[in-house]
Amino acid sequence: VKQKGKDGWHFFSASLEEKVRQKLSISNGLRLAIERDELSVCFQPIVDTHSTHIVGAEMLLRWQPPEGPISPAIFIPIAEMTGSIIPIGAWVFAQACRAEADWRQRWGEQAPGYISVNVSARQLNDNTLLSVVQELVKTHASDPSRILLEITETALMADIDTNLRMLCSLADLGFRVAIDDFGTGYSSLAQLTKLPVNVLKIDRAFVDGLENQAESRAVVKAVIGLGRALGLKMVAEGVENSAQLLELRNFGCDYIQGYYFYRPLTEKNFIDAVDQDIKA
Ligand code: C2E
Ligand code: CA
Ligand code: CA
Ligand code: CA
To answer: What's the pTM?
Structure first.
């Protein structure tokens, strides 16, 4: 390393050091995020492909430390690595249970059908998870059948035995299960039928390719056909224009999530959007 030009070495060392420092500061910050009240959730509506009415929402975590907001795409992997995802995930679960009960009270039968919650594999590995969620369901008097747990295909398949066991226990409690970012991992047909899965979410990367990539089109079409044949609800994520919507409609996709309809909203704006949608 020392043989390298002084500037080059300094540059390399500084940027590496900077990266380590950033990760360390994020992991330290995350440990205090709950007690400092820096976490919040937003809700991205999910609509019916045909009626375009709101059928549910995905709950997305937001972290706003004093230095400014940090993307979950950055802090979630760090929280998974350090273990902070366990208390943070419990906090997220509490929000979901609270919101589910609130909405059902607010809108009754007309309430959007479900709340989607992202769950890390690290949480499924934690044997306190079951008792924690059972307690939360009781405290908030929430209906777990209206809470959909999203686990990414890659995380699910990385340790299929452990994850399958935990997902079955959660399904026994009444929770629904979705495979997130579907198409990016390698689950087999045989595995899919063994899993307690209700919903497949087609990864945004395939939706992106719908218009001009023949391969993406073929994958999306086949995956929708496969999912429906297995009796699953199909959700396409990252839909940003009407061309994508029309294709997905033709392929028989049940639900749509994406900026074309709604961006992630604050809970207040989500409530307004549903009120408008119910009137429409
Ligand atoms: P994800 O689960 O795949 O969530 C969908 C992401 O796509 C969200 O990003 C959402 O804002 C974004 N998105 C939705 N529609 C569109 C669209 O039309 N175009 C584009 N370009 N993007 C769209 P977000 O909120 O930044 O979250 C990123 C990831 O962080 C999530 O990906 C999820 O893996 C993770 N995450 C978020 N909240 C939680 C949480 O509470 N727990 C865990 N474990 N992970 C979370
Ligand atoms: Ca998700
Ligand atoms: Ca996703
Ligand atoms: Ca994703």
So the answer is: 0.93
